[in-house]
Fold this sequence. Notes:
Layout: H1 2-25, E1 27-32, E2 36-38, E3 42-51, E4 56-59, E5 66-67, E6 70-75, E7 79-83, E8 86-97, E9 101-105, E10 109-114, E11 120-123, E12 127-132, H2 159-181, H3 198-212, H4 220-239, H5 248-257, H6 265-280, H7 287-303
Parallel strand pairs: 2-12
Antiparallel strand pairs: 1-3, 3-8, 4-10, 5-6, 6-8, 7-8, 9-12, 10-11
Helix pairs in contact: 3-4, 3-7, 4-6, 4-7, 5-6, 6-7
Amino acid sequence: MRARLYTYRVLLLLLLAGYTSFAQEEKAGARIDVAQITVGDQARLFVEAQHNPATSKLQWATIPDTFNGLEIVEKGKIDTIKNGNIVTYKQRLLITGFDSGMHVVPRFIFTVLPNSGTPQTLQTDSFPILVQPVAVDTTKPFKGIKDIVGVESSWKDYIGYIIGGILLAVLIAVVIVYLRKRKQPAPAPIPEGPKETPNEKAIRLLNELEQQKLWENNNPKEYHTQLVDILRIYMEERFGVNVMELTSDEILQKVALHREMTTHRMLLTNIFYIADLAKFAKAQPTPQEHMAAMDYAKQFIMATKPVVVVEPQNPPTAS
């Protein structure tokens, strides 16, 4: 009995130790430099998250441009600080408000994708910020609106319009004379070849990108920028969704709601994670991750290639 009780205690301690290790490696937080501002003024909001790249991948939180009566006027770049095995990502945001009152900065949710196991979520605390109206000095007298003051004008004020009209008339006359002297039959239209399908175009662009060998020549940021742009164009031409101006998280949200693309969301998640790591973080992807991003992109394009159904022709019936 004592041996069994001792075994249970050891297992409990190991579970607590594993949970404490995860809590120390994976966490997120946010803070603001002031508790109140005047209408139109700005406050600095600092958001950060940390994780261990050796054991998991981190998806940055989706931070909207407006929330709860507040607006983000500037988003700073995501800085990276490495301390041993732990990497901390930090971003500074400038927020403002134009409606007086008490507003709330919401929680921001991060997703941690372990190398094995169930994804975890991290979230920051929410906190209030007071937006105060502009103070008005009621002791000073009211100043009325001044009447409109007329301004005398002369033909010199319209000299620009006169010269422009003359030049336009001369240009029209020259075009008419030229067209009358040079009347030729229009050239026969050149027959167009077979139009390139969206998936054929995307695969061709990806192959051309591979031949540039950008990441092999120490230019991984340009490599992943072009790769993601090729995917954005493919999504617009193939599925008719506008994603050119969206962030990675916003694109993945659209993918999750799309009937045809939702089954391939994990492929796109891996691509955008590696691309954001190359473009915004100081810790660069490995060669295997560079090549994996290209493979994932081609897999997604081939998996979503339209299927052409050829209907069988009915044999002629005897009369």
